[in-house]
Amino acid sequence: MRQSTVNRASAGLGKLIATAKEYVWPAFGRDSTFFDLPVSIVSAGEGNYVIDCYGNRLLETNSCGAAASLGFNHPALLAAMKEQMDKITMTTPNLFAPTEPVVWLSEKLAQISPGSLKYTIYSSNGSDANETAMKVARHYWKILGKATKYKVIHRYPGDYHGMSMSTASASGHIFRRTPFEPLMAGFVAIHSPNCYRCPYNLTYPGCDLLCAEELGKVIEFEDPSTVACFITESTNTGLGIVPPPPGYMKRVREICDQYEILLVCDEVITGFARSGFWFECEKQGIVPDMLALGKNLSWGCGALAGTHVKSEVAEVFTGKNTLQHGYTFGGTGYLAAAGVAGIEYVEKHNLLARATEIGKIMAKKLGALKEKSAVIGDVRADAGLIAVELVKDKKTKELFADRAAVAGVVGKVGRENGVLFACSTWYGDILWMMVSLTMTNDELAMIVNAVDKAAAAVEKQFT
Ligand SMILES: Cc1ncc(COP(=O)(O)O)c(C=O)c1O
CA nearest 289: which of 64, 150, 134? Predict the structure, then answer.
């Protein structure tokens, strides 16, 4: 290991990029050429904008994977964190004793979540929150004397639940499964609903929610006495922000109840106002047994996640059945302080209603673009969950042959128009827009303008 002799504050851009190339292994398989791209190293955030190391100031449309729903340096969050950091920076100072903000955040969560969802087990990231839920489900059935119930049913494609071995096993991102096989035993997949590209080539409502009925069929095939839980997103963000058909989640809840299976809703993305409700399960009219939370639990300020559990489930974990599970950084106090401050900010500024309004504005404006564009195949905009799916042929829904090249053009045109897009290529070219809930109408208009320009450029170059 060489000693660094660099004065970092005065190191030039060239040195910064060269050092990044030499030492950083960026996420998701990006190689060192990544650092030649614009927006490869971020220097600062300013409200809903990011400023990269080249000095570009760009309106960020994805809230960093929906993790920063109040922007990148919100004063209310900074103040709350500073107050707690000045008291203590550590999370678990006395054998996992919670700090005060963790207590207040837990109370808030119980107040804003539906039904008897009440207790929160803290962890660091969304993967932990989902893994914790699956461990709770298995242990719960053991406590009730039904130790054979261990299997986890999940959905594919899409429906991403995390990076750990168990959450990869429970996820439907095929490209994030095969490189790491063998995955864990006891995980069984059913199809995700997708009304734009129905896996059964059916149309709602004539389909009679076959996608939900498949859950019951698979449970019967597996034998309900072997199944612990069904883990699912409601809107399948990992598939490209694909909402379930009306009634899907209600039917899923009924099926889980019928077969005595715990329902885990992964709201790592959809939680905290993004759906226009505190949690999307409420919008869907159901109460899951557990909610997996992350990202905006700290409003993007840092690694804080939680598994929010119904009292009926949590209260069997007593005495010798205590849950042998916990993390060193499970419930960092200053992040919990940001969590409480963010919830109070949303309440004070009525951002649940604003999220719904944002969805309506974007549905209307992007819907109009879809009408005139030859490559905008689908617009899915509901509150802060907004997707624009680009296709080569709107009639056949044919995908582009070189999806990465299309995404590259979208990104370039976006940046030229002051906007940073996340265009995923996993299941098509899908602009994944999970905008900050503090965006102004002018900022939304800027995004629509950039989508218009990007779609025109794609149409010109690829059709
Ligand atoms: C729906 C969903 N669940 C779980 C996760 C995993 O969260 P983390 O990256 O914090 O582990 C993510 C991450 O993007 C996600 O989108």
Answer: 134
